[in-house]
Amino acid sequence: MTVIATIDPVTRLEGHLKLEVTIDTVNGAQQVVDARATGTLFRGFESILVNRAPDDAPHITQRICGVCPVSHGLAAVTALDKATSTTVPTNARIMRNLVLGSNFVQSHILHFFHLAAPDFIETPGIQPLTPGWKTDKRIDGSIRDKVVRDYLTALNMRRKAHEMGSIFGGRMPHPPTFVPGGLTATPTAAKIAKFKAYLAELIPFIQDTYIPDVQAVGGVYSDYANIGRGHGNLLAFGVFDLDSTDNNKLLARGRAQNGSTNIQSVDVAQIAEHVKHSWYADSTNGLNPAVGVTTPTYPKTDAYSWLKSPRYSGQPYEAGALARMWVNGDYRGGVSVIHRHVARALEALKVAQAMQVWVDQLTVGGPVYQSFTWPTTAEAYGLTEAPRGAIGHWVKIASARIANYQIITPTCWNASPRDSAGVRGPIEQALIGTPVQNIDEPIEVLRVIHSFDPCLSCAVHVMRPSEGAKIFTVGHYHGEEEIYTHTHDDGEVHSHGHSHGG
Amino acid sequence: AVAVIEETYNKGGYILVVEGGVPTAFNGCTCWPWSLNGQDVTFKQAILDLSSRAAAIVCVGTCAAWGGIAAAPPNPTGVRGVKTITGKTTVNIAGCPPHPDWVVWALVQLLFGKPIALDSYGRPSALYGPTVHSTCPRRQADEAHNLGEDGRCLKELGCRGPSTAAGCPGVLWNGRTEWCIGANAPCIGCTSPTFPGSNQFFHASGD
Ligand code: SF4
After folding, report:
1. Helices in chain B by DSSP H: which ranges?
2. What is the pTM for the complete model shown?
């Protein structure tokens, strides 16, 4: 008996994603046997950038996302600095790291407590956490009460991390201080002291609350150390430059194939974006982003997503904190739902502790900006990391205007649809084999999706071909789920009303 | 989420809060916020349906109000503001992003049944009265000639403060930690109906 489940929208993530999962019983165990991820939003930022002044790129691209704008700002200025062969002052390099580091800390805290934890703990029956699914909520009273309390503390900590970022960012989100050539803000003794005061609150929270809570949840759900592995290919562009060479970073660039500890180098020429299953013109299939083209084509046969499928040497790769920590040798516990959460928590601590060192390396009164002139023509790319994974901007300049701009976001790597060879994207593959206890509340599917911290909104359709197709539309409002059940007979859809999950 | 929205819709008389502009290209199929009875619902359809029974509509952000960055030339997905799509009056809490205090202020006014006076662009006059420039602490300062200079007026670099209505100099951002001009970043005019336009936001150096 096969069932296809659709969750739409899958919430507790940023953006728009829909997931269709086929569930079947294999060797007596009900599990996911196929998955299709659909990005349900296209905005065309790449076309908006064409013909604009290159200076505008960090401001425009940050508006792609309110959760990880800083990474877009940094990818843009990195590409533009390369295009003009500018080495930014040390103060600027450090302040860029501090703003991005603050964003990593706030994003990781948000992800675990506010987006992922409600998949594992039964949340209080108050809005906006109702209605909620009850399936497989194993956490008992004392741990549950602690995580719920910490959920509230985490809101405050997240706010503090945002405030910390705005010291040199000017404002969060969309910090306006990121400019090609450096940063507009300057370090003063007062700002440095203020930054350190925030770190002095955030580091103990990560150490004594965030990491132990992740470990407590991981202990109760130890089976999730082996659920949601996927292809096991891990890719990191690397982030937090420790000097101006581009190859000395807090978290190194590199990749690992199939969970190997043998770390290989990254050659951007090996990246190509497939669009066979995406709503873009087939003539643009398989292009490297340096010559990439974005031509929306809807409807299109075989296509089911607004996301392109980036591949490295033709292979899908997973991006994110686990990939970074794995490549850097900081964490190699395994590739799964729980390992992704643990790596993210440990990374938050590593970055916060590194910021303590960096903030003391700022020179009060030192330069923050290096002037330059735009070349008439240039081509460059900027690679860095968002909290949720590798990010790259590719820019072409002609007549001192942007002639082409291509962006590959981390969620493009992770939530991509099948490629030209029909190989599933990382999230699609990670769902295969996921056990499903109760097909009316496929909470296990959400746990796998959320472990990637996708920057999207998401959907799952459940069908039973033998009984006529059955579709569940599942959504949750800021944290909890509800279900619509509809039965297809002879291709007709009849509403059978809906029942709340809780 | 969808059940809560449906329930509220059936009751009617709610405050509809919209984030994001409304795409119209490709029949609106570049944005499906959810599906209903197995059918994808476009954002445009959702806005048309939900606005019909709303007591008030609040646009949170410049995109929902007038299209914003998503509608910047060449407006690839045909994004329009909510008022253009629905023909209804909207309370436009402009900004990219809008200040949280402004959002909360508008909701509190509506929840307590207080009238909100709007300017000709649909923004609350109480929030978007004087320009950034008119209350900017750098008005008397010497002008900056390059980026990264502390305490100077950013006019020569292209600061849009003189043409932008917003209270940023007073409220500041992120718990009053900082604001754009305070960090030497020229105002890019994110609360204006014309934001972002096609002109360069600001220049690295002035005359
Ligand atoms: S910095 Fe901008 S807003 Fe402030 S005084 Fe100068 S021009 Fe006006």
Report:
1. 2-11, 43-52, 62-66, 82-86, 100-111, 168-171
2. 0.91
